C-alpha cells in the first residue's frame, strides 16, 4: 500500500469523526451511556444515521472550579481580539451582557457607545486620559482622603478611571468589606457617593495584593457570578458539589455532573426525562397540594342540595335529613332531589332522571374518574420511585454477589457486568417513573398508543432484569446468568433509548398533545 | 509570607467620626445642629433638624438619629428619625424608618453625615403631599425595634 493511500484513509477517518460526534465525544457522558452497544436490529432505530435533531445536537461538558476562571478568560480574550480594550473593561462589559458575546458585539458596533459604557458603569476607554491612575506627578503636596478625612501623601492615592482618589488603606478596607459581604464581586461601585463606575479586577489585584485571602474570595465570587450570569452554564445542584456544567443550548435535557448527579439542564431539578420541565413542575405541584384531596371529597361525598354542606354517607337508608340546624333539608341520597315524592320507598329511588340530580351525579362521576386516573399514574410513578430508593441497598447486595463470584474463580473484571446492569436498571427506572408523569398529561391519540407500547416494553424488560439481579448465583448457573443479565440490560438500555427518541422526535414534530388537568 | 494586618487603629470608625464632628460643628448648614453628644459614646448622634422655610415642613422640628459601628465609614450607619419627632412623608414610616436608597444599598463610604442630613432634608423639601406611606400602621407597629437596614426596601422615587 502506498503512502498516498494511507493519507486518504486518514482523511476519511477524520470526516467520519466529525459527523456523528454526539456519539463519540468523551465528555458527553449522557450519550455515552445510551450509545447502543450492539448494532440495533432493523426497524428499532427509526432513522439511520440519526439526523440533526435538536436534542441529539445537545452537548455538555462538566467544568471544575479551576477551569472556570480560564473559561472566563477565554471568553474575554476572544472578545478582546476584536475590541482591543483592557481585559478588565471587557470583562465588566461581558458581565453586563450576561456573557452573551454576540449581543455585546452587536451592541458595541450598532449603537451609541457612550450610552453602552454608561449603562455598563465603566468609563469610556476611548476617552479616558492615558495617565496611569495612582502615579500622579504631584508628589510633594499632601491631600485629604475623603473617606478617612486624614492627610495622606499623594503617592498613596488609588482610584478607578473616574479619578475619584482615596488612600490605599481606605480602599483596602472598602474592598474587604464589599468582597466579604457581597454576593457579586463584579458589582462593587466606586466609593464616591455620586459615581457608579464599577471596580475592576486590576485595582483589586493591585490594592489587595498583600491579602491573598481576599483575592481568593474575589476570584471565588467572580466565578460564582460568571456561572450565574452565563445562560449556558449551570451549577450542579448536588449538595457540596463544586462543578458547573456548560451546554450548547438551554434545552431541558438531563446532564450528568462529574460527581455522578443527573439533573435537568433547564430547571436544575433531578433528571426527569422524558417529561418536559413545565409538566414536571405541574406534576410536583399536583402531588404536593391537595387538589387530589378535593377530588376524593367530590368523588366520595355529596353536598346537601339546600345548604351545600358536605356529607359522607356511612350507612342507613336513602332518606337524608341535613344535620345543619339552619337547614334540616329532607332529600334522597341517590337522586339528591327532595324526599317528599319518594314517600316510603326508603331503599330505592325511581326518580333517576331528575335533571338536578343528574347534574350532581355526572359531576361526581367526573371527579371519580379524574381521581382514578390520577391514582393510576401516581401509583406507578411512586412504585418506581420506591424501587429507586432501594438503589443503595441493591448496589450493596450486588457488591456481595460480585465477591461471591470472585470466590467461585471469576476475575474482578468479569464480575463488573453486574454493576453495569444495576446502573442500567436505575436509569430505566428513573425514565419509567417519569414516563407515567408524561402519560398522565398526554391526550390519547395514535402516537400516545405507540408511546404506551414502548413504555410497556421497557417496563417488562426492566422488571425482568430486576428479577435476574435478585436471583442467587451458584457455580452451575453462573455463565448462564451472566449471558442473561448482559443481554437483558443491553436490551433495556436500547428500549429506553427507543422510547426517548420517540418522545423527543415527537417534541420536535409537535405530535404530542397535552392536557393541563 | 507574614500576614499583614488590616490598618485598623488610625482608620477606625472613631477617627473618622471625630473628624466629622469637627467639620459638623464648624460648617454644618444652619438648619441642622447636633444635640448634646455624649463624649463617652461618640457612636450615637442625635441631629436636630428644622423644617426649611417655604416648604411643607416650615416651623417643624425633627430628630434624626445616627448609630455608627467601628466599621464606619465602610459600613453605613443606622439612620432613623427618633419616634415622636418623625416628619409625615410618603417615604418615612412613623416608627422613624426612612426609605432612602443612599442609607442602604446606595451607601458609599465617601458620604459624610452632613451629606446624609442634606439628602434627608432634600427628600423633605421636594415633598408635595403630607401623607404616611402605604401600609405604615402595619409596618410601624410590627417593626418598632427593627434595624431598618434589615428591611428590604424598594425605592419608588428618586431623591
Automatic annotation (TrEMBL), chain A:
Compositionally biased spans, kind Acidic residues: 1-32
GO biological process terms held by the UniProt record: protein ubiquitination
Key word Lipid metabolism present: no
SUPFAM superfamilies reported in the protein's UniProt record: RING/U-box
Catalytic activity annotation: [E2 ubiquitin-conjugating enzyme]-S-ubiquitinyl-L-cysteine + [acceptor protein]-L-lysine = [E2 ubiquitin-conjugating enzyme]-L-cysteine + [acceptor protein]-N(6)-ubiquitinyl-L-lysine
Region feature Disordered, mapped onto this chain: 1-46
Domain of life: Eukaryota
Keywords attached to this entry: Metal-binding, Repeat, Transferase, Ubl conjugation pathway, Zinc, Zinc-finger
RING-type domain location: 141-353, 145-194
UniProt cross-references to CDD domains, sorted A to Z: BRcat_RBR_HHARI-like, Rcat_RBR_HHARI-like
Molecular function terms from GO: ubiquitin protein ligase activity; zinc ion binding
InterPro entries named in the record: Ariadne, ARIH1-like_UBL, E3_UB_ligase_RBR, IBR_dom, TRIAD_supradom, Znf_C3HC4_RING-type, Znf_RING, Znf_RING/FYVE/PHD
Family, per entry: Belongs to the RBR family. Ariadne subfamily.
Record's protein name: RBR-type E3 ubiquitin transferase
Lineage of origin: Eukaryota, Metazoa, Porifera, Hexactinellida, Hexasterophora
UniProtKB/TrEMBL annotation, chain B:
Domain UBC core span(s) in chain numbering: 12-159
SMART domains linked: UBCc
Pfam families in the record: UQ_con (PF00179)
Domain of life: Eukaryota
CDD domains xref list: UBCc_UBE2W
Record's protein name: Ubiquitin-conjugating enzyme
Amino acid at each position: 500500500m502506498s503512502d498516498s493511500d494511507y493519507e486518504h484513509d486518514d482523511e476519511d477517518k477524520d470526516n467520519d469523526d466529525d459527523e456523528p460526534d454526539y456519539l463519540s465525544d468523551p465528555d458527553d457522558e449522557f450519550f455515552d451511556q445510551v450509545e447502543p452497544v450492539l448494532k440495533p436490529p432493523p426497524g428499532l432505530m427509526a432513522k439511520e444515521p440519526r439526523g440533526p435533531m435538536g436534542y441529539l445536537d445537545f452537548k455538555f461538558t462538566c467544568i471544575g472550579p479551576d477551569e472556570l476562571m480560564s473559561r472566563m478568560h477565554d471568553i474575554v480574550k476572544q472578545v478582546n481580539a476584536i475590541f482591543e480594550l483592557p481585559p478588565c473593561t471587557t470583562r465588566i462589559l461581558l458581565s453586563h451582557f450576561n456573557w452573551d458575546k454576540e449581543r455585546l458585539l452587536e451592541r458595541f458596533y450598532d449603537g451609541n457607545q457612550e450610552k453602552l459604557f454608561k449603562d455598563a458603569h465603566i468609563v469610556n476607554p476611548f476617552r479616558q486620559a492615558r495617565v496611569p491612575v495612582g502615579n500622579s506627578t504631584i508628589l510633594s503636596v499632601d491631600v485629604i482622603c475623603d473617606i478617612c478625612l486624614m492627610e495622606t501623601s499623594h503617592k498613596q492615592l488609588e482610584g478607578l478611571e473616574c479619578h475619584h482618589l482615596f488612600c490605599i488603606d481606605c480602599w483596602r478596607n472598602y474592598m474587604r468589606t464589599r468582597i466579604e459581604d457581597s454576593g457579586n464581586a463584579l458589582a462593587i461601585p466606586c466609593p464616591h457617593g455620586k459615581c457608579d463606575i464599577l471596580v475592576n479586577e486590576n485595582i483589586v489585584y493591585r490594592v489587595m495584593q498583600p491579602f491573598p485571602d481576599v483575592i481568593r474570595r474575589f476570584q471565588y465570587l467572580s466565578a460564582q457570578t460568571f456561572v450565574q450570569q452565563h445562560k449556558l452554564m449551570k451549577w450542579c445542584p448536588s449538595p457540596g458539589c463544586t462543578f458547573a456544567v456548560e451546554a450548547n443550548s438551554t434545552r431541558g435535557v438531563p446532564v450528568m455532573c462529574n460527581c455522578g448527579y443527573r439533573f435537568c439542564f433547564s430547571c436544575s431539578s433531578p433528571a426527569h426525562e422524558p417529561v418536559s420541565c413545565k409538566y414536571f413542575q405541574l406534576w410536583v405541584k399536583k402531588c404536593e397540594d391537595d387538589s387530589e384531596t378535593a377530588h376524593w371529597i367530590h368523588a366520595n361525598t355529596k353536598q346537601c342540595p339546600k345548604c351545600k354542606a358536605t356529607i359522607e354517607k356511612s350507612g342507613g337508608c336513602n332518606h337524608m335529613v341535613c344535620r345543619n340546624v339552619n337547614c334540616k333539608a329532607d332529600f334522597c341520597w341517590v337522586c339528591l332531589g327532595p324526599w317528599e315524592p319518594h314517600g316510603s320507598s326508603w331503599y330505592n329511588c325511581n326518580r333517576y332522571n331528575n335533571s338536578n340530580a343528574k347534574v350532581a351525579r355526572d359531576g361526581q362521576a367526573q371527579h371519580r374518574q379524574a381521581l382514578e386516573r390520577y391514582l393510576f399514574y401516581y401509583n406507578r410513578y411512586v412504585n418506581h420511585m420506591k424501587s429507586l430508593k432501594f438503589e443503595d441497598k441493591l448496589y450493596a447486595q450486588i457488591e456481595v454477589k460480585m465477591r461471591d463470584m470472585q470466590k467461585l474463580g471469576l476475575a474482578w473484571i468479569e464480575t463488573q457486568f453486574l454493576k453495569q446492569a444495576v446502573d442500567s436498571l436505575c436509569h430505566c427506572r428513573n425514565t419509567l417513573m417519569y414516563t407515567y408523569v408524561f402519560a398522565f398529561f398526554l391526550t390519547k391519540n395514535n402516537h400516545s398508543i405507540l408511546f404506551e407500547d414502548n413504555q410497556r416494553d421497557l417496563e417488562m424488560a426492566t422488571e425482568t432484569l430486576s428479577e435476574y439481579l435478585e436471583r442467587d448465583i451458584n457455580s452451575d448457573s453462573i455463565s448462564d446468568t451472566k449471558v442473561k443479565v448482559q443481554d437483558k440490560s443491553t436490551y433495556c438500555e436500547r428500549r429506553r433509548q427507543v422510547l426517548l427518541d420517540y418522545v423527543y422526535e415527537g417534541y420536535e414534530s409537535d405530535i404530542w398533545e397535552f392536557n393541563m388537568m | 509570607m507574614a500576614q499583614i494586618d488590616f490598618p485598623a487603629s488610625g482608620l477606625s470608625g472613631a477617627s473618622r467620626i471625630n473628624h466629622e464632628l469637627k467639620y459638623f460643628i464648624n460648617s454644618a448648614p444652619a438648619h441642622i445642629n447636633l444635640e448634646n453628644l455624649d463624649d463617652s459614646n461618640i457612636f450615637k448622634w442625635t441631629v436636630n433638624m428644622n423644617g426649611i422655610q417655604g416648604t411643607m415642613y416650615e416651623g417643624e422640628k425633627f430628630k434624626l438619629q445616627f448609630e455608627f459601628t467601628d466599621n464606619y465609614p465602610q459600613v453605613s450607619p443606622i439612620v432613623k428619625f427618633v419616634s415622636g419627632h418623625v416628619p409625615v412623608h410618603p417615604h418615612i414610616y412613623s416608627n422613624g424608618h426612612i426609605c432612602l436608597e443612599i442609607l442602604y444599598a446606595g451607601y458609599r463610604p465617601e458620604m459624610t453625615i452632613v451629606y446624609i442630613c442634606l439628602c434627608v432634608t432634600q427628600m423633605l423639601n421636594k415633598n408635595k403631599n403630607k401623607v404616611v406611606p402605604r401600609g405604615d400602621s402595619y409596618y410601624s407597629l410590627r417593626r418598632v425595634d427593627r434595624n431598618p437596614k434589615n428591611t428590604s426596601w424598594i425605592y419608588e422615587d428618586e431623591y
